[in-house]
Amino acid sequence: MNWKEFDINDLDLENMGSWPIQIKAIFAAILLAAVVYGGHYFFISDRLQSLEQAQAEEQTLRGDFQMKYRLAANLMLYREQLKELEARFAELLKMLPSENEMPGLIDDMSYVAADAGLAIGSLEWEQEIERDFYIEFPIRMSVTGNYHEYGEFVSGVARLPRIVSLHDFKVTKSDSGGVNVEVLAKTYRFKEGAQLPNNLPKNAGSKG
């Protein structure tokens, strides 16, 4: 069969040897492309996807290893820091007033205010607030004086043996030329039987 005389309708699949060489080449190229595509689709693509997943997992594992290596390398340092934090926390808990010391705290606040030269307008407990492992005791107070006296009062509160924090300041000018200050003082008491945060000494909440 001559190439110029070729008609696609004359193709005989049972007698490919009689096909023109050009048709054989085209058919072989199509067949090869089909084999390559089929092999890639059915055999290689899944393995390439598995390879990509394995490479991504390898990067993740490398990152985890590097992080754990750094942690392991600094393990002793972390342990020392943890012990230091435990000791600090235990000391802070000892600074919380016990139940027997709560009534005297009002007297301490009154003494500090008077010693700073402030005139006390009001000083009273508000409703206690329960937290995770401690109880918050707010003290609403109003004092009158000048800025220097109020600064002395704040310093005196900071020097108290038990923890007292000051919040929600409201400052207004008084008729005498000084200032009226309303402030919410808060002290805290460890809640007996409460679950301490992890890794903290169980005796940290003992009354001091």
From TrEMBL:
One of its GO terms (biological process) is type IV pilus-dependent motility. The chain crosses the membrane at residues 21-43. Residues 68-95 form a coiled coil. Keywords: Coiled coil, Membrane, Transmembrane, Transmembrane helix. This is Pilus assembly protein PilO. Gene3D superfamilies: 3.30.70.60, Helix hairpin bin. It holds the Pfam family PilO. InterPro entries: PilO, Transl_elong_EF1B/ribsomal_bS6.
